[in-house]
Specification:
5 strands, Molybdenum Cofactor Biosythetic Enzyme, Chain A, five-stranded mixed sheet, globular, 42% helix, DUF4435 domain-containing protein, alpha/beta, DUF3226
Length: 218
């Protein structure tokens, strides 16, 4: 995303994400889909602290900010989608949100309640499966790409030899960054790969995500 979207002050409408990788992927998608700049994409803390725990810890104070009109939340499911959804639901109930569904909505959840900011939640990759941002990005690899199967083959082989050093939840990171290392500009970051069209942005998962953003903020 261009620097134009990197607001120095948070807007009354905010999308809260776990880290900078999420920021840059979302900025790139917003630019590709030409979304109006009606919201800022924020990290959990001004000091740059990243991660889901920092995000969850910041929710109560953020939602009590009288200037806040709309808050979107994007987090990784990691290995347990239901547990992640429950942790967010618990935080929202403390602030006063009611009628929170028992399960995440496949198309992303949005709710409007009087006297509280409009709220939306998207759990990576698609509100239905365990996983992380990198799983979402893997869906953006072109379907006819010949390197993707090779990257999977390499990752599988390393795991069969038990010489890999990443945990199960980190496998998608190992896979996407292996694939990115083989591009014309090796190691190009995920957001830049979308901008440069190394990754496609036309997919059902991105269209559902962009629809959720539009319904939440526009």
């Amino acid at each position: 995303m261009s620097k134009k979207r990197k607001f120095t002050q948070p807007k009354p409408q905010q999308l809260l994400v776990e880290g900078k990788n999420d920021q840059h992927v979302i900025w790139a998608l917003c630019k590709k889909y030409k979304l109006p700049e009606t919201f800022s994409v924020e990290l959990p803390n001004e000091d740059g602290t990243e991660g889901v725990e920092a995000l969850l810890s910041s929710l109560t104070a953020r939602l009590k900010d009288i200037e806040l009109k709309t808050l979107g939340i994007v987090v990784d499911a990691d290995q347990n989608l239901q547990a992640r959804w429950q942790s967010i639901s618990d935080k929202l109930k403390i602030v006063g949100y009611q009628n929170i569904p028992h399960l995440p909505c496949p198309e992303g959840w949005i709710d409007t309640q009087s006297e509280l900011p409009k709220i939306g939640v998207w759990i990576m990759p698609n509100n239905q499966l365990p996983g992380i941002l990198e799983d979402f990005v893997t869906y953006l690899i072109p379907t006819d790409d010949q390197l993707h199967p090779k990257a999977i083959e390499i990752i599988d082989h390393l795991e069969q030899l038990t010489i890999h050093r990443y945990g199960t939840v980190q496998r998608p990171k190992a896979l996407i960054h292996t694939w990115l290392a083989w591009q014309e500009k090796p190691g190009i970051p995920m957001g830049q790969a979308i901008t440069a069209q190394v990754l496609t942005y036309h997919s059902s998962i991105t269209e559902t995500f962009i629809t959720w953003l539009n319904q939440l903020f526009n």
